[in-house]
Specification:
- It is globular and about 70 Å long.
- The strands form two sheets. The protein has an eight-stranded parallel β-barrel with strand order 1-4-5-8-9-10-11-12, surrounded by nine helices.
- The protein has eleven helices and twelve strands.
- Helix content is 39%, strand content 18%.
- The longest helix has 18 residues.
- With 323 residues, it is an alpha/beta fold.
- It has a single domain, classed as Alpha-Beta Barrel (TIM Barrel), CATH 3.20.20.
Length: 323
């Protein structure tokens, strides 16, 4: 007798019935870039379809995402000034703080997350304070905590430390608790590799390091066991959700981290992954929409509960149309 798995693929309805992995608009977190000014929606050259927004246009984008069923966004700020310590990152009138307030005023139920890092705010472009030519871990912790508290002062629901300093989740958790924000969450970039796939993001956020690179604090792409260690440490320090970044080249890491925690697991479908699909589709080398959905399904299938993706609006529209 021939075994015939194709019986379960014969029609679209049958395929839908037996599908193992499902994508939903509720899975998506949309990364957005915000800068000072009004009526700004500047295209990001290396990320077609993505923009740098001013707070007023950002709110309109958030409203569109919310109407499509995308429940959350994460904000990255482009400050109006940079210095060695990135002090505009925790200023009450900082760009992320302004943007959070405006979004929460208009969309109080939307989940607003904020990236917590110094790279966009320092004149040297590194993720922490430079002492003797290197990023000093422990000096940086206090500044990250100040940034996180200021974001919650503005109304953020979750802060997302992406700096990869040792001990920062615990330090931020204590600072939030001391400030009365026991109810605000931490989405930790627990497993963040030193990746070539961040290139377009650094264009979008103006955050490229002015010297050296970030291999001294971001993870070596060759290491998998270290990813489990990093995830376990952040869980012990009080993370409410953890993240693997990038997503597509590290599906094996997503799967392995999924096995060691019951916490919600996010994966960041990063700028380079987005840009590759957009570039190839523009050349007619692949079907961009199908590639997008296949990529997102693969990330979900690997074990991610949530996907940070620049495809959020486009994928949400497709899912809405299918339903």
């Amino acid at each position: 007798m021939i075994t015939r798995p194709r019986r379960l693929r014969r029609t679209g309805t049958i395929r839908d019935m037996v599908r193992e992995t499902h994508l939903s608009t509720q899975d998506f977190i949309a990364p957005l870039f915000v800068k000072h000014g009004k009526n700004i929606q500047d295209p990001i050259r290396s990320m077609p379809g993505q923009f740098q927004f001013s707070p007023d246009t950002l709110v309109l984008e958030a409203e569109e995402l919310w109407a499509l069923g995308v429940p959350a966004l994460i904000l990255f700020g482009l400050p109006d000034g940079k210095n060695p310590t990135g002090s505009r990152s925790w200023a009450e009138d900082g760009i992320v703080q302004i943007a959070v307030k405006e979004i929460k005023d208009r969309l109080p139920d939307m989940v607003v997350m904020t990236d917590v890092c110094l790279c966009e705010y320092t004149d040297h472009g590194h993720c922490g304070v430079i002492l003797d030519g290197v990023v000093d871990n422990d000096t940086t912790l206090e500044l990250l905590a100040r940034q996180a508290v200021s974001h919650c002062d503005a109304g953020a629901d979750f802060v997302a430390p992406s700096d990869m300093m040792d001990g920062r989740v615990g330090h931020i958790r204590r600072a939030l608790d001391d400030a009365g924000y026991q109810d605000r969450g931490i989405l930790s970039y627990a497993v963040k590799y030193a990746s070539a796939f961040y290139g377009p993001f650094r264009d979008a956020a103006d955050s490229a390091p002015q010297f050296g690179d970030r291999t001294g604090y971001q993870m070596d792409p060759a290491n998998a066991l270290e990813a489990l260690k990093e995830a376990e440490l952040d869980i012990e320090e009080g993370a409410d959700m953890i993240m693997v970044k990038p997503a597509l080249p590290y599906l094996d890491i997503i799967s392995r981290v999924r096995e060691i925690t019951l916490l919600p697991l996010a994966a960041y479908n990063v700028s380079g992954e987005y840009a590759m699909v957009k570039a190839a589709a523009s050349k007619g080398w692949l079907d961009g929409e199908r590639a997008m959905m296949e990529m997102l399904m693969a990330i979900k299938r690997a074990g991610a509960d949530l996907i940070l993706t620049y495809f959020a609006k486009e994928a949400a529209r497709k899912l809405r149309n299918e339903n």
